[in-house]
Design goal:
Blueprint (H helix, E strand, L loop, with lengths): L2 H14 L9 H23 L21 H15 L5 E5 L10 H8 L9 E2 L5 H8 L9 H5 L1 H7 L3 E3 L7 E3 L12 H4 E11 L6 E13 L4 H19 L3 H30 L4
Antiparallel strand pairs: 1-2, 3-4, 5-6
Helix pairs in contact: 1-2, 3-9
The structure holds heme C.
Length: about 280
C-alpha cells in the first residue's frame, strides 16, 4: 500500500470523487470499502513484522524484556561493539548516544571506540561491502533497525541456535536461519554444540523428513547455558533499544499528551455548552 494510493483513497472517501450525490454515493462507499481494506492491509503488514517464522517449524523462544534495565542495555552495548561491529554496521547509531544508557563519554572513548573513531561518529565498519560479499557470499546487513525488522524473539532464538556443521563453509549452521553465512561469533561464550537429527517417515505423506531432536554440547563455553541466555537477552535488549532509542520518551510523552487532550476536551465541552446556552 503506497502513501499515494492511500491518499487517493482518503480523498475519495472524503467525497472528492467525481460521482458526487447526496447520501452515501457509490464512489464514497467504494472509497470507504477500499479504506477499510487498506487499513486491514496495513494492520496485516504491521503484524507481519516480527513474526518471521522459524524454519523447520522451530518455535521461537520469548526474549526476556530487559529494555528498561540500564545494566542489561549497557552489557548488551558492550557485547554488540565487541562481537558484532566488526562485520555489521549500525549506521543510524552514534557512539555518543550510548550516554543515554548511562555510559560516560570517557568510558565510551576508552572501552568501546575503535582507535580511529570519534565519539560523535556513527557505528560504521571498516570492511568494504565488496570484500564482505567475497568472504561471506552476502554482505552482513546493517543492524540499526534489525530488531524491528525481525523481531526480538527471532533474534533471541537465532543467536542461541547455532550449531557445528562441517558441511558449511564457516563450519556453522543455524536452526532458525538455515545455511546462514554468518559464523557463530559467540561460540567462545556458548561453547560448541552439534544438532541431533532423526530421519523419520511422515505418516501422512510417506515422505522422508528430518526431525530435529536436540543439541549436544561438545565443548563447554565460558558461560553456563543460563548465563549465555542472559547475555544474549542483554544483547537483544540493546538491539531493541538501538532500533528505537526514543521509545521510552515516546511512551512517557504519550501519557502527557493524552492527559492534555483529556483536559482540553473537557474545557472545549464546557465552552461549547456556555456558547449555546442562550440559543437553545
Ligand atoms: C564475521 C562477520 C560477522 C560477525 C562478527 C557477525 N555477523 Fe551477523 N551476519 C554476518 C553475515 C555474513 C550475515 C548474512 C547471513 C546470510 O544472509 O546468510 C549475518 C547475518 C546476521 C543477521 C540476520 C540478518 C538478516 O536479517 O538476514 C543477524 C540478526 C545478525 N547477523 C546478527 C549479528 C549479531 C547480533 C552479531 C554479534 C553478536 C553478529 N551478527 C556478528 C556476519 C557476521
Amino acid at each position: 500500500m503506497t502513501m499515494a494510493s492511500l491518499f487517493s483513497t482518503l480523498a475519495r472517501a472524503g467525497g472528492l470523487s467525481r460521482n458526487r450525490s447526496f447520501g452515501l454515493s457509490r464512489g464514497v462507499r467504494r472509497g470507504v470499502a477500499a479504506l477499510a481494506m487498506a487499513c486491514g492491509a496495513m494492520v496485516g503488514t504491521g503484524l507481519g513484522v516480527g513474526t518471521v517464522s522459524a524454519q523447520e517449524n522451530i518455535p521461537l523462544d520469548r526474549a526476556p524484556d530487559n529494555g528498561e534495565n540500564l545494566a542489561s542495555l549497557q552489557h548488551g552495548a558492550q557485547l554488540f561493539v565487541n562481537y558484532c561491529l566488526n562485520c555489521h554496521s549500525a549506521s543510524l547509531m552514534r557512539y555518543s548516544r550510548l550516554q543515554d544508557l548511562g555510559i560516560p563519554q570517557k568510558q565510551i572513548e576508552d572501552n568501546l571506540l575503535f582507535t580511529t573513531d570519534k565519539v560523535g561518529n556513527t557505528m560504521s565498519i571498516a570492511m568494504r561491502p565488496d570484500d564482505a560479499k567475497a568472504w561471506f557470499g552476502v554482505a552482513p546487513p546493517d543492524l540499526s533497525v534489525e530488531a524491528r525488522a525481525k523481531g526480538r524473539d527471532w533474534l533471541y532464538t537465532y543467536l542461541r541456535s547455532f550449531y557445528r556443521d562441517d558441511t558449511r563453509p564457516t563450519g556453522w549452521n543455524n536452526m532458525v536461519f538455515e545455511n546462514v553465512s554468518m559464523p557463530h561469533v559467540l561460540w567462545e561464550l556458548q561453547g560448541v554444540r552439534t544438532a541431533k537429527f532423526e530421519d523419520t517417515v511422515d505418516e501422512e505423506s510417506g515422505e522422508k523428513v528430518r526431525r530435529f531432536v536436540g543439541y549436544q554440547q561438545v565443548t563447554r563455553g565460558k558461560l553456563s547455558p543460563v548465563d549465555y541466555d542472559s547475555a544474549v537477552a542483554d544483547l537483544v535488549a540493546y538491539l531493541g533499544w538501538m532500533s528505537e532509542p526514543e521509545q521510552k520518551t515516546r511512551k512517557q510523552l504519550g501519557v502527557w499528551v493524552l492527559l492534555f487532550l483529556g483536559v482540553l476536551s473537557f474545557f472545549a465541552w464546557r465552552l461549547n455548552a456556555a456558547y449555546w446556552k442562550d440559543i437553545k
